Amino acid sequence: MNSALSDSELDNLFDDSSLELEATLSETISAPLAEPLPQKDLKFFGNIPVNVTLEVASTEISLRELMDVGTSSVIALDKLAGAPLDVKVNGAPFGKAEVVVVNGNYGLRIVELSGSNLSDLAG
To answer: pTM for the whole thing?
Structure first.
């Protein structure tokens, strides 16, 4: 069984003009990139109330120790004086802050935001 191909038949097999690779490649390159997803509008949620709390520090004590607490008792906490305090929104960590006084009221000066912020909710 001799299945030798002639030069012209071999050239026809390797002729890339019939494959149209260049046309396909140029169409792929020139095709516009996928449009970015539209940003979600969070204005709708702007009036929803949330509970912002400032956590000074915490500690774990036994129930016996808690029952012994009186008006002059001192409970040592786990945070150093002057360290930024934890800000939580609806119980979830939001950032760190320091206490300031604004028009005679306490306020918070945010000094650090946690990894997640409100724009992450849109994803």
So the answer is: 0.53
